[in-house]
Amino acid sequence: MEAVAETDFDTPRPDPTTLGDLRASGHVERGVRDEIRNNLLTALRAGDDPWAGIVGFDDTVIPQVERALIAGHDVVMLGERGQGKTRLLRTLAGLLDEWTPVIDGSELDEHPYTPILPASIRRAAELGDDLPVSWRHRSERYREKLATPDTSVADLVGDVDPMKVAQGRSLGDPETIAFGLIPRSHRGIIAINELPDLSERIQVAMLNVMEERDIQVRGYSLRLPLDVLVTASANPEDYTNRGRIITPLKDRFGAEVRTHYPLDLDDETDVIEQEADMVASVPSYLVEILARFTRYAREHPSIDQRSGVSARFSIAGAETVAAAALHRSAVAGEQFPVARPIDLQAVIEVLRGKVEFESGEEGRELEILDYLLRKSVADTVRARLGGVDMRPLVTTLESGEQVLTGDRVPAAEVLTALGEADDVTAVIDEIAQRLGATDPAERAGVAELALEGLYLARRIDKDADEYGRTAYLVGQDDEEAV
After folding, report:
1. According to the model, what pLDDT value does residue 1 have?
2. pLDDT at residue 478, rounded to an integer
3. How far apart (Å, rounded) are the C-alpha atoms in residues 233 and 50?
């Protein structure tokens, strides 16, 4: 496990280094469930948010999780891909005490007051108050395992260590066991992602750990009072229909919590802005378009809704749009890269592989995604620019002018093509004020949005060439519009 940086500490590492010092400090031992319950209740009473970074679950998922933790239950999170299950499980570590004492050198991070391994019990009896104590940060007490079909019992629970047997210990000696990830999570949290991918015999090996809190290896049982909160994530399709989680294991999870995709458009945009690593400025209206695009994809009958449309779909879209803007700034010599609607053209090819289409739609993937993207743009224009009189833009194009844009066309050229007529400038000013566009690159973006809206409303035409350039004009044959 990686070392924890000093800058991650909210409070200094405690001083006691021996069992005697620990007793003298007045330290009181608490189980993992008690820690989580008390720290959660303390945060709720103080009005603090223990779920930083979790968006869209405030009134649905979070209350269920809080009740499960207060009850001390092991939890399985059920939801489609990209719904934030793992992100939510990782926040549980923040509910542990920041520091906890362990027997220095202990294989299972046992509490100095209650050693559980034979070797630790002997050390505690021999050394008494001189038993050495070290401290674990809460980030070191959360462990995660991605379940795969080749995961073994040894990985999760443990197995006999042949090297220890070769040293002369008998095969039935508990000290010959090499512990797996679950026992090593003693006094902490273990999260198993994609639980249904574990083979059934591996799931059977977890039964005693989940209920009796002991482990069984190679035909003999080592009674260990493990103090571990077991959490897991699963796709509900696997969980309920394929029957890949055995019934006794389902029964041992005290709480089953269903997650969901963001219910509101604002939550969808918040997720994109929070999670996307954008290398250029992406205006909020483009983020909204991508959010609407994702939500339409989740509803379209040609897309397999059983596999879901992950939040990573829109996040990758935002990152691609930002990358397109940065690419243009490098090629066209723009000082500040700002994404524009023309950059949305780069999204379709990138995102095609992130969704599963229904059988029979082969060959139509790009057509379907392009339609949904245009529909998202049209909705955003109506929501953001409703009531703006854009007739001066149409009049300018009717006079024979055209506005050329593209992935390599700088913002200055777009604004120059629109001209400096007072009525056109007034329209762009009004739209820019609505959308918070101030510098020329942002103004070019809102101008493109207005032109694209006029095109989708069939008030102007659009002509694209093989070089990625698009001309807005009047007088050509109408292309298909939303």
Report:
1. 46
2. 42
3. 20
442 vs 241, more confident: 442
Give the residue from 144, 231, 208, 217 showing the smallest Cα distance to 181: 144
* Torsion 52-53-58-62 (CA) sign: negative
pLDDT in tens, 351-405: 988 888 988 888 889 999 999 999 999 999 999 999 999 999 999 999 888 999 9
For 209, the token pair is 């750990």
User: How far is the C-alpha of 110 from the C-alpha of 119, rounded, in Å?
Assistant: 11
Which residue's structure tokens are 């891909």? 81
> What does the chain come to in residues?
482
Instruction: For CATH 3.40.50.300, list the domain ranges present in the chain.
Output: 6-258
Alpha carbon distance 156, 217 (integer Å): 11
CA atoms within 13 A on the CB side of 328: 29
Q: How many CB atoms lie within 10 A of CB 122?
A: 11
What single-letter amino acid sits at 389?
D
**Amino acid identity for residue 77 in this structure:** M
Q: Pick from 384, 404, 402, 405: which is nearest to 450 by CA?
A: 384
Phi, psi of 178 (to 5 degrees): -95, 110
What pTM, to 2 d.p., does this model score? 0.86
Give the list of residues 6+ apart from residue 305 with CB closer than 8 angstroms, or none.
298, 299
Query: For 453, what's the count of Cα atoms within 13 Å in the CB-facing half-sphere?
Result: 24
Residue 109: what residue type? D
> Is the confidence at residue 2, as pLDDT, over 50?
no
pLDDT of 470 strictly over 80: yes
Domain covering 6-258: architecture? 3-Layer(aba) Sandwich (3.40)
